[in-house]
Design brief:
Layout: H1 22-31, H2 36-39, H3 42-78, H4 85-92, H5 95-124, H6 133-149, H7 152-181, H8 206-212, H9 214-221, H10 226-230, H11 237-245, H12 247-266, H13 286-293, H14 297-331, H15 349-359, H16 365-368, H17 370-394, H18 399-405, H19 421-433
Helix pairs in contact: 1-7, 1-11, 3-8, 3-9, 3-11, 3-12, 3-19, 4-5, 5-6, 5-14, 5-15, 5-17, 6-14, 6-15, 7-12, 7-14, 9-17, 13-14, 14-15, 17-19
InterPro entries: AA-permease/SLC12A_dom, Amino_acid_permease_CS, APC_YAT
Membrane topology: Multi-pass membrane protein
Protein name: Lysine-specific permease
Length: 448
């Protein structure tokens, strides 16, 4: 392999602008996966798998994602391109592999936009139960479109503040939960480890239930790989990407593990509000329920507003990721060239238009109901997300040998390759093991 085939790419993709600063990239990394998966769908994991099963599922998939991120961050810092792992898959594995990975990832995030738009309908029904859901989807789709239409800096700035609100909310939620459990705030009279002994807890449904909720848990963590997509428009990827990657482990520990633990200690998994058997009121998230237990009734409405912010943030990130992936595919000849056209501000607007068309799946709610469509799209997005993770796990494997064959030194890299074999083995085993296959009807298995 020629020396020039392995080199750091300090240059941005033609036409794209490196306008994402360190604070933007860090908040994209921290807030990219804090959305409907945590705020809305986390209750279903506790109700189906029990408190212990849900916590273990989040911990195991979180560990897998950590190893995925270290390997992706290594390549993204070394070769910061907008296509990220699609480009890496084509370069280091096989051209067809990169082609399939890129199209799968674009579809994954385009569908995720639809998921978040349907979730926005469910959240808005908390205040406006009589307003048709498609009205809210149309309004918020237009907002996401405008944030991504102008420039990448506009996206980065909006996502920074969206993520800051989400991070602050999760920290406040954990603090309130701890105060309830220790008895300082009211509402914690029945909180504690006794909720881990109710019924079949802590592992309700056993191992099969854990595997069953893996799709929802996987959806929750989707977004951690967004820094790979943003690398092509980062100001200083060699410095900023490793810093963002280092945030992943602590984010997993604090924002997911602690939040699920608080929910399971305060709300019994048998509580029907956690959607154990069917979807009755998904707009009341477990976060809102905890605040209601604490007697902070006005805070429940505020929490729903925060959830709406999180939904819009996740959708905003999804639109950015899918648009940039489609642009990269077109630039590399793997999609119609029309999607590679850029505006004067460096935005691939044709790719943005195409992504919005797929996001229009959210309007199926007018025919099938918002709750049914939400869970159907959630499963579809989770399925394609696991496929993308498998591709991300495979893409870096040939990199060390090719790097050494080209005469480069691994000591230049952020993570020395000597620490990666165990992580590579874990992520390759874990991704297929935690992929249970799609549940096309969109409903969890009934537990009578």
């Amino acid at each position: 392999m020629a020396q020039q085939d392995i080199k750091t790419s300090g240059q941005q993709a033609p036409g794209l602008r490196r306008e994402l600063k360190a604070r933007h990239l860090t908040m994209i990394a921290i807030g990219g996966s804090i959305g409907t998966g945590l705020f809305v769908a986390s209750g279903a994991t506790v109700s189906q798998a029990g408190p212990g099963g849900a916590l273990l599922s989040y911990a195991l998939i979180g560990l897998m994602v950590y190893f995925l991120m270290t390997s992706l961050g290594e390549l993204a810092a070394f070769m910061p391109v907008s296509g990220s792992f699609s480009t890496y898959g084509a370069k280091y594995v096989e051209e067809g592999f990169g082609f399939a990975l890129g199209w799968n990832y674009w579809y994954n995030w385009a569908v995720t936009i639809a998921v978040d738009l349907v979730a926005s309908q469910l959240v808005m029904s908390y205040w406006f139960p009589d307003t048709p859901g498609w009205v809210w989807s149309a309004l918020f789709l237009g907002l996401m479109f405008l944030l991504n239409y102008i420039s990448v800096k506009g996206f980065g700035e909006a996502e920074y503040w969206f993520a800051l609100i989400k991070v602050s909310t999760v920290i406040i939620f954990i603090a309130v939960g701890v105060l309830m459990i220790v008895g300082i705030l009211k509402g914690g009279e029945h909180a504690g480890w006794q909720n881990w002994t109710i019924g079949d807890a802590p592992f309700a449904g056993g191992f099969s239930a854990m595997i069953g909720v893996a799709m929802i848990v996987g959806f929750s963590f989707q977004g951690t790989e967004l820094i790979g997509i943003a690398a092509g428009e980062s100001e200083n990827p060699g410095k900023n990407i490793p810093r963002a990657v280092r945030q992943v482990f602590w984010r997993i520990l604090l924002f997911y593990i602690f939040a699920i633990l608080i929910i399971s200690l305060i709300i019994p998994y048998t509580d029907p509000s956690l959607l154990r058997n069917d979807v009755k009121d998904i707009s009341v998230s477990p976060f809102t329920l905890v605040f209601q237990h604490a007697g902070l009734l006005s805070a429940a409405a505020v929490m729903n507003a925060v959830i709406l912010t999180a939904v819009l943030s996740a959708g905003n990130s999804a639109m950015y990721a899918s648009t940039r992936m489609l642009y990269t595919l077109a630039s590399e000849g793997k999609a119609p060239r029309i999607f590679a056209k850029l505006s004067k501000g460096g935005v691939p607007r044709n790719a943005l238009y195409a992504t919005c068309v797929v996001a229009g799946l959210c309007f199926l709610t007018s025919m099938f109901g918002n709750q049914s469509v939400y869970l159907w799209l959630l499963n579809t997005s989770g399925m394609t997300g696991f496929i993308a993770w498998l591709g991300i796990a495979i893409s870096p494997l040939p990199f060390p040998s090719r790097l050494h064959a080209a005469g480069a030194r691994s000591q230049r890299l952020t993570v020395p390759f000597r620490v990666l074999p165990a992580g590579a083995d874990l992520r390759l085993r874990a991704v297929p093991d935690h992929y249970p296959g799609p549940e096309l009807p969109g409903f969890p298995a009934r537990q009578d």
